[in-house]
Amino acid sequence: MQIFFILGIPILLATLTFLFKKQKARGLANAVGYFMVLLLSIALFKRILFLKSAISFFGFIYLDALSGFFILITSTVAFAVSLYSIGYIGKDMEEGKLPEGKARAYYLLFNLFCLSMFFVPSVNNLGLLWVGIEMTTLISAFLVGFYNTKESVEAAWKYIIICSVGIIFALLGTILFSYSFSMTGLAKSLNWSDIVPVAHILDKNILKIAFIFILVGYGTKAGLAPMHTWLPDAHSQAIAPISALLSGVLLKTSIYAILRFGIIVIKGVGFSYFGNLMILLGLISLVIASGFILVQKDLKRLLAYSSIEHVGIISIGFGLGAPLATVGALLHIFYHAVTKSLMFFGAGNIVSNYKQHNMHSIKGVIKSMPFTGFMMLMGVFALCGFPPFAIFISEILIIISAFSIGSYLVAGSLLILLSVIFGAFINHFGKMLFGRLPKGRQVMGEPLSGKLGFLFLFILVCISGVAFTIFKKDLLWIAQKLLQV
Amino acid sequence: MKIFILILQLAWFIALAPFLSGFITKIKNNIRMRKGPSIFQPYYNLAKLFAKSEVISETASWIFRVSPLVVFSSYLTASLMIPVFILLKPFSFIGDFLALIFIFALGRFFLALSALDTGSSFSGMGSSREMFISSLVEPTICLIVFSISLQFGSTDITVFSGMHTVSIAAIITALSLFLITIAETSRVPVDNQETHLELTMVHEAMVLEYSGRSLAFLEMAAYIKQMILFFLIAQIIFPVYLPGPINLVQIFLWCLWYLARITIVAVIVAFVEVAVAKMRLFRVADFLGFAFILGIIAVVCAVMGV
Amino acid sequence: MQGLILSGILISTYLMFIAKRMSALTRVFALQSFFLFLATYIAAKELGQLDLYIVAGLLLVLKVLLIPMLLGKIINKIKVSQDLGLFINAQISLFCALFFTFLAWVFSARLNIPGSHTEVGVFAIAFLVVLTGLFLMISRATALAQIIGLLAMENGLFLFAATVSGGMPFFVEIAIFFDIFVSVIIMGLFVYKINNLFTHIDVNKLTRLKG
Questions:
Q1: Residue A321 lies in a domain
Q2: Residue C16 to chain B, least CA–CA distance (Å)
Q3: pLDDT digits over B79-133, tens only?
Q4: Domains in chain A, number
Q5: Which of C187, C208, C211 sits opposite A297 (nearest CB)?
Q6: Does C6 sit within 8 Å of B168, measured CB to CB?
Q7: What interface predicted TM-score (ipTM) does this complex get?
Q8: Of residues A98, A147, A93, the one with CA closest to residue C197
Q9: CB B144 within 8 A of CB B297
């Protein structure tokens, strides 16, 4: 039942943008709406966890534990972003960078974007899943090219073209899946819940070829190298709150799509095929990301490459196959979403204050913006996997299970690359955060709503790290439930 | 009976060939909304040319005198090899499809050589252009022949004249052959038969030095070549199969069916000639390259069995 | 009849490789979509299903009429030269076309579809169209050619779906159609934006973001 509200509230908010005249009222209504969505999705997730089978409406909406988990992630980050955007858009309007009409357009697009991201995990039909992901591409393209500068329009064009090509390959894979299903003689259907029970009798060759197309296609949207080339441009040029949504949620939505098909393939062909491909792509992503992070000059591109790195880690986690690794990967999806959003908020504040992206010219952030600087400092440690923050837990789970099942090469390269990235991050951010205040800069504050957004995420990051040790057994059980469907 | 039909077929080709050319010119002029010369003008031209005496350059050698006969006889032999009316094997001991290609090449070779022989610069230019075009055309004709042979199982031409289904390979072969026919029969967009401007001549440049009976033979040869190529296209798309005993009624029906198909191809060619502008010579390479690729695709489709 | 339509699709695909101007490419794309419409219409008549008729109708309206008209309007409005910016010239493109045909044939033969020879042939043609779209996007330097490449890929996928599984469920097809239409509109909007900011639509020159 909650799913209808979860889908309905963004639509309502999208229409409300035309009613409210004042910017602040609009932002506040947005934040309140997404808070309700967050509560609803927590309730939904709780309900699904304790049910035997999945919830299904009209054969069209299909919610099992995996969908509920992803809806929860989306609503968490959406709520934080809605809090942050009140302050961010307000500041931009004060400075004159955004006219009134554009600010209204922002809220409209933001709500449509969130709607499409809620739509993707809730449908049963694999074709509609494709349509949902294509919708997210189209809507977020406007948000990427929002500022209408040369760089952002270029980034938006690359984003649309590369992701559309990828998605067409994904459609090819979907058609091949549908073909293999039609060969079994059952009624023609693209529903996931119909395909999974008969997965073991589907033609293996066709499943293998189809999955490669799916991996290439949805992997483009997920940011797996070597199809990642749109990611640094799009995520660095997008407007800051949307960068958080893109990095935190949109990549994970595509991973959701890969997982759905992956479950069919695991049941049909066996785990090693799926696992090998995922580990391979994950390792390539990590290598490429670490290379680019070392030589990076642009703050937001740095964070974008870090997203590629983390998607690679998630992919390796899923590819290893041990239950502990899978738990780690699932948790990593959530923790990375939260942590990366935190970092993008901070980056947004820094960029709008210092008016440029280049890291070499940004110095003394802690002195000029104490709150943001402190949050960024904590965020850097969180992102690199320090205890007691959340990402440490998920990464350590993945590494432990890699060692325990004997893939020493994977575990070793993971460790080496993570430490390289850690070093690069500390180097870049150390230069930015510390140091003398540059001339002519004074101490700036941030709006309260922005601070609230930060705090919300930061608390989540801290708690998740600690909470794991308490809820170990429950989380393992949750993960089993998520993937055994 | 067989011999009679063979002679009839030969006579049919020779008699009808100029008419086809005049028919196409008539259609073109109709589209251009003028009256133009009558349909039988090519016949009048040939009659006039046979009555005139020849003017031969002093520097020309025996090749110049011999060429028109060689060219004419080669195309006539080619027309003997093609089974227009009957499913019998008339002169198949002469050769099959591959021999057809080489007989065409013989004619072309002698024509180009004789044009060089006169020492006139216009004819030499026509020769070089013709060789350039034929270097692209001949491989394509080979591919078309291979495609047809793969579809029917043998390179014997008589196999070709039976009934067959219109498959993808057949249609692409026909299209490729159509583009080649435009090049071989010197039609727009490759060459312009109606003008004698230096920029636009290929075939006309080669026959520029000829006069009198030799010119008549060369014109006749060109008409017969056109007839053969049109027939091949028509055969691929509208295969002939009129079963029945070989008697005069049957032959009459065959003639009608033959005329109908040739007319359709002629009308299409006329429309293409009117609608398109002549291409510059370096673009002809693009055009013929496309025909070449279509030829390869025709072979691929034939192998795929599509 | 089927042979004629399939060869029509095949020939229009090869014509796409040698198109040198934007309006020519748009026209060839409309031709290809028209043959696709004929194929769907005949399939609809054979099977007698109403949804196939609707799908065929949508194909005609959207891909043969509306989208080429939209693209034509964009071409007229942005006032850049009609040159497609062939990165790989026409003759070599044709050789690539040959290579793709071979690739498509090998792929469809490997897929082991139980059925007659024609099934393998149609499969190969569908895959060839997808590869054509991909090739157009890589080797042509203007933004508009990239849009048409995308649409050609989608054409190929439609043919694929029609042969392989007898088409996809009805509402999925409708959703995909409208999705493609909306994406063409949005991409057209972006071409305008690019033209306004950069005064050209040569994507090879969009290199401000590096590293």
A1: yes
A2: 11
A3: 888 777 665 555 666 678 888 889 999 999 999 999 888 888 888 888 999 999 9
A4: 1
A5: C211
A6: yes
A7: 0.91
A8: A147
A9: no
